[in-house]
Design goal:
25 helices, 13-stranded mixed β-sheet, alpha/beta, twelve-stranded parallel barrel
């Protein structure tokens, strides 16, 4: 359709409609935009100037990096043939194999629908520079090993391409003409390298210029680096006429395919030459493929080697996967200057939209120039690595990417020009990462990133000298700024670092330094160990003049010091050189230093043990307190908190600087010392301000150093022509530490210092100390008080030492905010306990002494201190009663009128109560006065009145069992005491008396069974042992219970379970009546009686009494307090003895013998048995002699453990040893009731017997008597051989012993009642006393032997009010046991009292001052000692009470035998 130039309105409307419809269709389809545009209509008539509107036509002309598939058919007719032109085999539409090399003479195109295979060692080339080869294949392309395709411009499109081993697609040094207007080839004749992606290197140095400022060929085609399609440039020459000495540039290669396999190489490198010319620059490589894979494959557009290396080319890669292929675009080596290779080229990664610059670690001083960066769409990232050197020579530039900007591996990024340091670089990225690289900015930097990471890297910002005070750079790491590996950020002007997360300088060498430095808005700032945060950079920095005008020449404190700005933005007029603002936590492990340091609106500031926050030596070089100098003398020290030390040189004295500033709110810098012209001037300390008036630091933790010390003068002697030397400079004075805080911890080993500097040699005076002020915010008082400072470190405000004769400077001062009432001191601590403060101030003298206190009282701690004269106090323990701090006992005593009235009152109460108890006892129990002599009852009366515990005698009197005695053969006594250690047991061999009546084997089995039943289990003894330790009366009760159970078990066994198989009598076996087990009342003695069965039919049976002699009768009991020895005369024994002794005589004898035996004590048998032996000789045997028998004391039935039993040996009256016939017995009556006394002559008929030795008589020989009784008799001589075995509790036998009755039972009962009440009262009073020692003491006393302290009284009352003499006596013995047991608890109380009062050892953590115990030390023992005495008296009184109950007939103890036997 043709349209004339003069279109009608309808035609124009139609054209516009077509355009709009086309745009709408392309937008709705989301396809690649196709914009209709006017194209020249090539009509047949050839008219020009007419436009054709429609879709753009694909460009199919030559020199394109890519061709549309529609161009294949269009250029088919221009294609070379497989066989005709390429010398191959086959067809390009199917498969063409080229098997021999071919050189094309001109630009050529190869188009086909099939596959092209280039065989091994085959080269397809067009060697003419700029020669173009186009391969457009719908099939695959394979370049065999050791083969190549080479040409100036190579455009290859195929379905898949394979480049085999050692093969190549090559355009090295085959470049055509570079784009017009470029300066890639050097114009001089210095042999410099050609430029393209990077500048070519030049080895020539111009005078006054650095090698980095001189280069060869320049870069070009920056704007098209994302679509590179330019030839490289030729290198320069050293000979004007021989341009070819320079290496040719690299050509162009464009590849479009699906899968690209590169085991060889794709190269567009610059040409390499010798040192007569420069290397050519790399060309351009554009590759678009789905996958790029290979094995050691190589894609290269590097510069060539020459005198000066060529610059790298440009590479563009568009892929989905890349693996196993190296990409190179570095500059070429420089033969003339090996350390200055050509500049790196560029790589544009389409997949990541990233620009990558790498010089393959080739050192270079030549820049790869980057110009204006693209506007949206933004690049994804910029990566500069491997010694690449980037230059951005612009006044202003912005690098803005959506991802990372990364500098790595020795790379350098330089912005601006050194000769004009007024440029400004704006760099914005998500992450800014530097690793072993450098960023150099001439001018100002605006860096913004979410994450800033520097490792072994540097950022140097250099501003022009004219604009140092106003040029400001900013670095923002919003999430993280992490600096490590000796990295540094340095600026010679103002620098602000912002963020919202973490700023961390990791360790040694990590540095941020600037002329004025502001760090703000971070959550946490960490200055690691060895790291440095400093401003200004040097002590003589240009900013020092501004600081001097603000602080050193004016008495006015800058307003911003006390009330700084709230916005925390960098202010070039700020009075601070280093400010950290709006940071939550500041952790200083390294060094933070500056002339005027301010940390504002921070929550926590921590200076660790390695950390230093310092303004030392960075104050005023002169100042308001500068030291004076006398002509020819030494300089005086600078003054500040005090007067500087005098400088003294010989007779010349120079006064030190004066004191100045406000000690309450110091904000002055220290002053310098006087300088006599020796060239060694000193400066004072700077100013450090933490917090502000309205925004104090919440917590300051100092474990390291916080210092603003004055500078010390160097120790150098300066010789002059006058006198040979000049005096030294004075030391600088200390600066100021102004701390607005809420709380502070000054740990052990930390230091706060404003020390003056040392004077210089010779004679320089020391600088004065500075000032330290703690301005506490919102000091808590009263109940809200908490300590605001913990000070364990050191605060130094001392003046500096003078040198030689120079004097030391005065000390500075430490001050704090005025403290409210109750608090004092610099740190507003509580006034000491015992003082009060009722006015505002900090002096310690304001804490005044409280009024005196009562004894055992101490002032109590009051949170926030005491603010009123009435100081609260409390007793030293809760055991004492307010307000006089008496113990519970003292409180009771003084309530009742004092000690004397209390004792009188208590005594009266106890006497009245004792009388009431006695009256009540008489009414309830009856009169128990047995003081009258009582007669032993005769036949028919109860024996209980004579000896109540022998209950069996009643049985004898009540029932006569004659039939048992008529069939009784023998009584076998059990060995042992029926205890857990010595249980009952029978010997296995039957006694001689029953050998004829039992089967010996069966008897042995019977004995084994009986012994097994009599033995105790281990747990029974264990329970007894435990109870013995805890409460012995319970242990005794347990033992009696087990004894009773053991006896019952034996009786049941013998009576009903055992079949009596050991007996020969059939009748006995059938009726189970041949054996009977019985025991004494105390369950210690047991025996088995053997009876006839009635079917023996022997007239000599049963044996008569005189046929049984010698016969042993063993005592019951064991000689202890609870079980005294006694003769248990049961029915059978009484009936048997009645054959020889009248019953009434036997009853009286048994009663008298038991009365004597009850005083026999185990452990003292030798002495206590003597009266028994004597009594038998005087009271018993003379009367028994009339009956033809005699009894003697004997021991028998010894066990393997040494236990033996005592008893009587009944024998014929004539079997008496010689020494058993005292002369006195000759005059005694023959029997009770005899009417006349006997005479010597009257005894001829029966009293004289043949003298016979006890042990030599047939009856008592060792073979006779010992065999039958298993022991020996005891007399006054042999009794001494008994071993008295003393037990651990033997001393208690002096308190618990059975004694003779004394009568007066009513008085004894009254005494016991009084003693019970006294015991109970003293026990309670003692417990009240020890309650003041501690509840632990009371529990220990009461529970050491559980219940022993409180049960004696209850047991005593129970015994007093019990019915029956026998029961009352038994309960009284239990009462006595509890009483003696409780002595242990009293001894525990004595031990506790001794440890507490005399040794000062407590049972609980509450410490009591000795002065509070002085009144108790002398009297504490009285109650325990009285209680011991009462218990001892009580024990003896109980013994008397028990004796009165058990022995009601005191005639039993009559010393005259006649009175004993009187009716």
């Amino acid at each position: 359709m043709k349209v004339s130039n003069s279109r009608s309105p309808c035609a124009k409307f139609f054209l516009y409609a077509v355009v709009l419809v086309s745009l709408a269709l392309s937008t709705s389809a989301h396809s690649e935009s196709v914009i209709l545009q006017p194209v020249e209509a090539l009509s047949s008539s050839g008219d020009e100037g007419e436009l054709s509107w429609g879709p753009p036509k694909p460009r199919c002309d030559a020199s394109q990096p890519s061709f549309d598939v529609k161009c294949y058919a269009k250029r088919m007719n221009e294609s070379l043939g497989c066989e005709s032109d390429l010398g191959g085999v086959g067809s390009l539409d199917t498969l063409c194999r080229v098997r021999s090399s071919i050189t094309l003479g001109q630009s050529s195109i190869i188009v086909g629908a099939g596959t092209l295979e280039i065989a091994h060692h085959v080269n397809v080339s067009c060697a003419r520079p700029g020669c173009e080869i186009i391969l457009l294949l719908k099939g695959n392309l394979t370049v065999g090993s050791d083969s190549s395709i080479s040409g100036g411009t190579l455009t290859i499109q195929a379905a898949n391409i394979r480049v085999e081993d050692r093969s190549s697609i090559n355009s090295t040094a085959l470049a055509g003409t570079p784009p017009p207007g470029t300066s890639g080839t050097p114009s001089n004749f210095e042999g410099a390298g050609g430029g393209h992606g990077g500048r070519g290197a030049s080895c020539e140095r111009n005078e006054g210029k650095d090698q980095g400022d001189v280069w060869g060929g320049d870069m070009y085609e920056w704007e098209t680096l994302a679509e590179p399609w330019s030839h490289g440039s030729r290198g320069g020459t050293t000979v004007e006429e021989k341009f070819y000495l320079g290496g040719a540039g690299g050509g162009r290669i464009a590849i479009s395919t699906g899968e690209l396999l590169i085991n060889g190489s794709i190269e567009a490198d610059g040409g390499t030459v010798g040192d007569k010319g420069g290397g050519g620059s790399g060309g351009s490589i554009v590759i678009k493929a789905q996958t790029i894979e290979g094995k050691d494959g190589r894609i290269s557009a590097s510069g060539g080697t020459g005198r000066g290396g060529g610059g790298g080319g440009r590479v563009k890669l568009d892929y989905k996967q890349l693996e196993g292929v190296g990409i190179f675009y570095h500059g070429g080596d420089s033969l003339g200057c090996p350390q200055n290779a050509g500049a790196a080229g560029t790589l544009f990664d389409v997949m990541f939209q990233s620009l990558i610059v790498s010089n393959n670690n080739k050192k270079s001083k030549t820049d790869t120039v980057l110009l204006a960066f693209t506007v949206p769409p933004l690049w994804g990232s910029v990566v500069i690595k491997e010694s690449a050197r980037i230059g951005i020579p612009l006044q202003w530039s912005t690098i803005r990417v959506t991802g990372q900007v990364k500098l790595m591996s020795g790379s350098v990024l330089i912005f601006g020009l050194a000769e004009s340091s007024s440029s400004e670089l704006e760099l914005m990225a998500t992450d800014f990462v530097m690793e072993n690289s450098t960023l150099l900015v001439y001018g100002a930097l605006r860096l913004s990133a979410k994450m800033l990471s520097m490792t072994s890297s540097h950022i140097d910002i250099i501003a022009s000298q004219e604009k140092l005070m106003v040029v400001t750079s900013t670095i923002e790491g919003s999430n993280l700024a992490y600096i490590q590996g000796s990295s540094a950020i340095r600026s010679n002007a103002n620098l602000a670092i912002y963020g919202q997360g973490l700023l961390q300088l990791e360790g040694p060498g990590d540095t941020i330094m600037a002329q004025r430095l502001f760090v703000s808005l971070f959550y946490n700032v960490i200055v690691g160990s060895g790291a440095i945060l400093r401003a200004p950079v040097e002590a003589d920095s240009p900013i020092q003049e501004q600081i001097t005008s603000m602080y050193c020449e004016s008495h006015q404190c800058p307003t911003e010091v006390l009330r700084p700005s709230e916005d925390c933005t960098l202010n070039i007029t700020s009075p601070f050189t280093l400010q950290i603002c709006r940071v939550e936590d500041v952790d200083i492990h390294g060094e933070v230093s500056g002339s005027v340091v301010h940390i504002q609106r921070a929550r926590n500031v921590t200076i660790t043990r390695e950390g230093i926050l310092s303004a030392s030596g960075l104050g005023c070089p002169e100042g308001l307190g500068v030291g004076n100098v006398t002509s020819g003398g030494a300089g005086g020290g600078g003054g500040h908190g005090g007067i500087g030390g005098k400088g003294i040189l010989g007779d010349l004295k120079s006064e030190g600087g004066g004191s100045y500033g406000n000690s309450e709110l110091p904000c002055e810098l220290g002053s310098g010392g006087g300088n006599p012209g020796s060239g060694n001037s000193t400066s004072g300390g700077g100013l450090i301000v933490l917090g502000s008036m309205y925004h104090p630091v919440t917590v300051l933790d100092v474990y390291g150093v916080l210092a603003a010390d004055g500078e010390s003068s160097a120790r150098v002697d300066f010789s002059t022509k006058l006198g040979g030397q000049v005096g030294g400079s004075g030391g600088g004075s200390g600066g100021s530490l102004l701390l607005f805080l809420q709380t502070m911890i000054l740990a052990n080993g930390s230091l706060l210092s404003t020390t003056g500097g040392r004077g210089g040699a010779v004679g320089g005076g020391g600088g004065a100390g500075g000032r330290v002020h703690f301005h506490w915010s919102d000091i808590p008082t009263g109940e809200d008080y908490v300590p605001i400072a913990t000070v364990e470190g050191h605060i130094s405000i001392s003046g500096g030492d003078g040198n030689n004769d120079g004097l030391r400077g005065d000390n500075g001062n430490v001050s704090g905010k005025q403290c409210p009432r109750g608090l004092y001191g610099t740190y507003c601590v509580e006034c000491p306990v015992g003082t009060y403060k009722n006015e505002t101030g900090s002096a310690k003298e304001l804490c005044r002494e409280c009024p005196p206190l009562p004894g055992r009282a101490e002032h109590t701690y009051v949170r926030g201190g005491v603010s009123k004269p009435m100081c609260p106090y409390q007793c030293i323990s809760d055991k004492y009663r307010m307000p006089h701090c008496y113990t519970v006992l003292e409180d009771l005593i003084y309530t009742l009128g004092g000690p004397y009235l209390f004792v009188l009152f208590l005594s009266c109460v106890m006497v009245v109560l004792a009388l009431m108890l006695s009256v009540a006892r008489m009414k309830l129990v009856g009169n128990d006065d047995f003081s009258r002599p009582a007669m032993t009852p005769r036949v028919g009366l109860h024996v209980e009145q004579s000896f109540p515990f022998l209950e069996s005698l009643n049985e004898v009197l009540e029932t006569t069992r004659v039939e048992e005695s008529q069939c009784h053969i023998h009584r076998m006594y059990f060995m042992g005491s029926n205890s857990f250690n010595e249980p009952w047991h029978l010997p296995h061999s039957p006694p001689d008396q029953i050998v004829d009546f039992v089967y010996e084997d069966a008897f042995n089995r019977f004995v084994e069974e009986v012994n097994g039943l009599a033995a105790y289990q281990w747990w029974e003894g264990s329970v007894h042992s435990i109870l013995t330790v805890l409460a012995y009366p319970f242990a005794w009760s347990w033992q009696q219970w087990r004894r009773r159970e053991k006896l019952q078990r034996l009786q049941e066994f013998v009576h009903s379970e055992y079949d009596h198989a050991c007996l020969r009598s059939c009748r006995s076996r059938a009726l189970y009546e041949g054996l009977k087990v019985a025991a004494g009342p105390d369950l210690i003695l047991a025996y088995i009686d053997v009876f006839l069965g009635g079917d023996e039919k022997r007239p000599d049976l049963p044996p008569k009494l005189m046929e049984r002699v010698p016969m042993s009768i063993i005592f019951g009991g064991n000689g202890t307090y609870l079980s005294s020895y006694n003769l248990h005369s049961d029915n059978l024994l009484t009936s048997l003895l009645s054959q020889a002794v009248p019953a009434t005589m036997w009853y009286r004898l048994v009663a008298g013998l038991n009365a004597q035996l009850r005083t026999v004590r185990k452990g003292a048998l030798c002495t206590s048995l003597m009266p028994v032996i004597s009594w038998l000789d005087t009271h018993a045997n003379p009367w028994l002699f009339e009956q033809g028998v005699r009894i003697d004391l004997a021991w028998c039935q010894a066990t393997a453990s040494g236990y033996y039993q005592l008893g009587l040996l009944l024998n014929h009256a004539d079997d008496i040893p010689q020494y058993f016939q005292p002369a006195s017995m000759l005059s005694m009556p023959r029997s009770p009731g005899s009417g006349r006394l006997g005479s010597f002559g009257h005894l001829e008929e029966g009293m004289f017997r043949r003298p016979q030795s006890w042990h030599l008589s047939p009856s008592y020989s060792s073979l006779g008597s010992r065999r039958r009784i298993g022991g020996a008799t005891l007399d006054t001589v042999s009794v001494r051989s008994l071993e008295d075995k003393h037990y651990p509790i033997f001393p208690l036998s002096f308190l618990l012993r059975n004694t003779r009755p004394v009568g007066q039972q009513a008085s004894v009962g009254l005494a016991i009642s009084l003693l019970i009440l006294a015991d109970l009262s003293l026990t309670l009073l003692m417990l009240l006393q020890f309650y003041s020692v501690g509840i632990e003491a009371v529990l220990l006393i009461v529970l050491f032997l559980p219940l022993a302290s409180v049960l004696p009284s209850a047991a005593g009352l129970n015994a007093l009010f019990s019915h029956g003499s026998r029961r009352s006596a038994g309960l009284a013995r239990v009462y006595a046991l509890w009483n003696v047991t409780s002595l242990v608890n009293v001894l525990v109380a004595l031990v506790i009292g001794f440890l507490h009062y005399n040794m000062g050892l407590g049972l609980h953590t509450t410490s009591v001052h000795p002065k509070h115990m002085s009144s108790e030390e002398d009297t504490w023992w009285i109650l325990p000692a009285l209680l011991v005495l009462i218990k001892c008296v009580q024990a003896r009184t109980i013994d008397l009470h028990v004796a009165n109950l058990e022995i009601q007939d005191r005639s039993l103890y009559a010393s005259d035998p006649i009175k004993f036997w009187e009716p």
